[in-house]
Amino acid sequence: MSIVYNYMLYFFIYSFLGWVCESIYCSCLQKKVINRGFLNGPVCPVYGVGALIIITGLWSYRDSMIAVFVMGIILTSLLEYVTATILEKLFHAKWWDYSKHKFNINGKVCLLNSTMFGFMSLFVIEILHPFVIDVLSNMNSLVLFVFLILAMMSMIGDLVVTAKALNSLTVRVDSLTSIVDDMKKIHAKFKLYEDEEFTRKLKISPEEVAQKLKSMSEKYGDLRVQEKIDEIQEKFKHIKRKTFVHRRLLNAFPNMRSAGSQRRDMHFQYIKKILKEKR
Fold this sequence. Notes:
Blueprint: H1 3-30, H2 45-58, H3 65-91, E1 93-94, E2 104-105, E3 109-110, H4 111-137, H5 141-190, H6 195-204, H7 206-220, H8 223-239, H9 244-252, E4 257-258, H10 262-276
Antiparallel strand pairs: 1-4, 2-3
Helix pairs in contact: 1-2, 2-3, 2-4, 3-4, 5-7, 5-8, 5-10, 6-7, 7-8
Organism: Intestinibacter bartlettii
Keywords: Membrane, Transmembrane, Transmembrane helix
Pfam families: ABC_trans_CmpB
């Protein structure tokens, strides 16, 4: 088998093993079953990439455990930082935040996790990877080829579905921002609440505020405002539509935040709350 073929197999094997470790760890922390990871399937691609980096960069140092440990910390920390930055830029969200951990860098990496990854690097180089090589060398090549093709097709399809779901979250945040701006204009006309009270109620439940504004517009017979409120309520129905992918992502990354302004993150947190509510 070629080196590229072998490394593709390694990628999917370690992506799966990383998913197992992450899911077990997060399930224990949250005391419920969590399907951890960016994708819906049983894979965490960042672990597959991380394993390839470790294997490629540290295999020749396997006789020095200290070198593997230290370099493992550096390489995996760099990967985690780059991954967090890319996800933030692509989907306008912060998937994890280590800001409350000691010795963190911009909340994207922290010493505790990096040290754990250093030990994992040692485990991979000294124990796990030699075992993986031995197992693969004794497996039927046709079986491995079929596995690789199916794994690639599944991951590509999963990536498309997940990307669409994440994009729809961004669209919903934009829609809620537009709704809030429209309600502020309507409120300026009717002055249903004092300004501070109106702002507080918007933070708690903008949908309830919309209903109150509609009642006020009906009282004054303002058809134009009533039509605008009807439009706002239709937008709310769209925002509240739940999908399996949304629920899974929010359960897998409960601390996910918007990477935009504080106001945008407030809207993002409200959407998270209503999407996680049971029907």
